[in-house]
Specification:
The complex is a heterodimer.
Chain A (H helix, E strand, L loop, with lengths): L3 E4 L2 E4 L5 E7 L7 E6 L6 E5 L3 E2 L7 E6 L2 E6 L8 E7 L6 E2 L3 E5 L1
Parallel strand pairs in A: 2-11
Antiparallel strand pairs in A: 1-3, 3-8, 4-5, 4-9, 5-6, 7-8, 9-10, 9-11
Chain B lengths: L2 E4 L4 E2 L5 E8 L9 E7 L6 E7 L4 E3 L7 E6 L4 E6 L8 E11 L6 E7 L3 E5 L2
Parallel strand pairs in B: 2-11
Antiparallel strand pairs in B: 1-3, 3-8, 4-5, 4-9, 5-6, 7-8, 9-10, 9-11
Classes of the chains: A mainly beta, B mainly beta.
C-alpha cells in the first residue's frame, strides 16, 4: 500500500494568514493526489484533484502543487470558514489511501 | 449534481453483519461516469477506503477488509450497498458513501471522491 504522511499534523493560524500543508507519498505517484477539507461532524469535501486542479466551486485562495512524492496545499489568505482538517489522498493505485490529516485551528 | 444518502443501521452486534445502503439522486448507478465507493472513519481518526463498484458490477476492495466486504448495486432503486461480515468493535465508525469521479483524457485515469453522503455512525456493541 502507498503510505501518505502529512505535515504539520496541526497548525494554528489567524484569519488572513497564508498556510501551507505538505503531503509526502511513500513512492512516486506522479500527480495522482487529491485534497479534501473536513469540518467537524461533516463529510469531507473535495478541494483539489490531480494535485493542482481546483474543484468547481472551491475558492481560488486554495492551490495545490507537486508531483512524484511531494505535494503541497496552500491556503492563500485564511478565511473563518477554512478552519478544518485537511486530508490528502492518492489514487495512483488501490487500495486508495489517505494521509492522517492536518488540523487548522484558530491561533 | 449527484447527491448521496446513507441508510442508518445504528447498532450492530459483534460477529454479525453490518448492512448499509446508499441512495443516489441526480445521477444513475447504471452510468459509466462514476464508480461508487464506501469509506469509513473511526471516531476521532482518519479515513479508510473500503472499496468501490462500477456500473458493470465489477468491484475493488481494500485487501485489509477483502474477505469480509461485499459491495453491490441495486439499479431498480438507484442505490448501492455495503455488507461487512463478522464485525468487531474495530469496525465502529462513521461510514460514508461517495461517488468516484475521474478523468481519463490523458490516457491514464485520475480518480477522486467527488461527492459524499453525510455519513452514518455505526456502533458495534452487544
Amino acid at each position: 500500500d502507498i503510505q501518505l504522511t502529512q505535515s504539520p499534523s496541526s497548525l494554528s493560524a489567524s484569519v488572513g494568514d497564508r498556510c501551507t500543508i505538505t503531503c509526502r507519498a511513500s513512492q512516486n505517484i506522479s500527480n495522482y493526489l487529491n485534497w479534501y477539507q473536513q469540518k467537524v461532524g461533516k463529510a469531507p469535501k473535495l478541494l483539489m484533484y490531480a494535485a493542482s486542479s481546483l474543484q468547481s466551486g472551491v475558492p481560488s485562495r486554495f492551490s495545490g502543487s507537486g508531483s512524484g512524492t511531494d505535494f503541497t496545499l496552500t491556503l492563500g489568505s485564511l478565511q473563518p470558514e477554512d478552519f478544518a482538517t485537511y486530508y490528502c489522498q492518492q489514487s495512483y493505485s488501490t487500495p486508495f489511501t489517505f494521509g492522517p490529516g492536518t488540523k487548522v485551528d484558530v491561533k | 449534481q449527484v447527491q448521496l444518502q446513507e441508510s442508518s443501521p445504528g447498532l450492530v452486534k459483534p460477529s454479525e453483519t453490518l448492512s448499509l445502503s446508499c441512495t443516489v439522486s441526480g445521477g444513475s448507478v447504471s452510468s459509466d461516469n462514476y464508480y461508487w465507493s464506501w469509506i469509513r472513519q473511526p471516531p476521532g481518526k482518519g479515513l479508510e477506503w473500503i472499496g468501490y463498484i462500477y456500473y458493470s458490477g465489477s468491484t475493488n476492495y481494500n485487501p485489509s477488509l477483502k474477505n469480509r466486504v461485499t459491495i453491490s448495486l441495486d439499479t431498480s432503486k438507484n442505490r448501492f450497498s455495503l455488507k461487512l461480515s463478522s464485525v468487531t468493535t474495530a469496525d465502529a465508525a462513521v461510514y460514508y458513501c461517495a461517488s468516484v469521479g475521474g478523468d481519463c483524457s490523458t490516457g491514464n485515469c485520475q480518480n477522486w471522491f467527488a461527492a459524499w453522503g453525510q455519513g452514518t455512525l455505526v456502533t458495534v456493541s452487544s
